[in-house]
């Protein structure tokens, strides 16, 4: 029999070997709330923080309270939305 005919291929041997082995499953999607207001109200912050920011989620409308953040880059990263991610209040501290 010709080796290129469909009848010579079996289901198990025609599969290509897995080249990379086991792949760890992806983490579940994290929905982020982005800044809606940022400021420096002149108060004394915790060590390492330089500004405060208010975050809101475009997906569900959730709004955080004022959170102290380290710098502008830290503010731009956003925070996880508590409603969309089913999180507790203590998990906002990054």
Describe the structure.
- By secondary structure, the protein is mainly beta.
- The protein has a domain at 29-86.
- 10% of the residues lie in helices and 20% in strands.
- The protein is built from two helices and four strands; from the N terminus they run E-E-E-H-E-H.
- The protein has helices spanning 72-76, 82-85, and strands at 32-39, 51-56, 67-69, 79-80.
- The longest helix has 5 residues, at 72-76.
- It is elongated, with a radius of gyration of 25 Å.
- The N and C termini lie far apart (65 Å).
- The mean pLDDT is 83.
Short recap of the structure:
This protein has helices at 72-76, 82-85; strands spanning 32-39, 51-56, 67-69, 79-80.
SS-derived structural category: mainly beta
Total of helices: 2
Tertiary shape: elongated
The main sheet comes to: 4 strands, antiparallel
CA gyration radius, whole angstroms: 25 Å
pLDDT < 50 stretches: none
Report strand order across the widest sheet: 3-2-1-4
Keywords: Plasmid
Topology diagram in text:
Elements: E1 32-39, E2 51-56, E3 67-69, H1 72-76, E4 79-80, H2 82-85
Relevant terms:
about 90 residues; mainly beta; 4-stranded antiparallel beta sheet; plasmid
């Amino acid at each position: 029999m010709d080796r290129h005919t469909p009848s010579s291929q079996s289901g198990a041997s025609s599969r290509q070997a897995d080249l990379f082995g086991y792949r760890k499953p992806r983490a579940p999607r994290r929905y982020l709330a982005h800044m809606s207001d940022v400021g420096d109200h002149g108060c004394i912050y915790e060590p390492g923080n330089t500004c405060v920011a208010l975050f809101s989620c475009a997906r569900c409308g959730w709004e955080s309270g004022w959170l102290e953040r380290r710098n502008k880059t830290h503010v731009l990263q956003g925070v996880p939305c508590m409603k969309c991610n089913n999180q507790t209040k203590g998990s906002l501290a990054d």
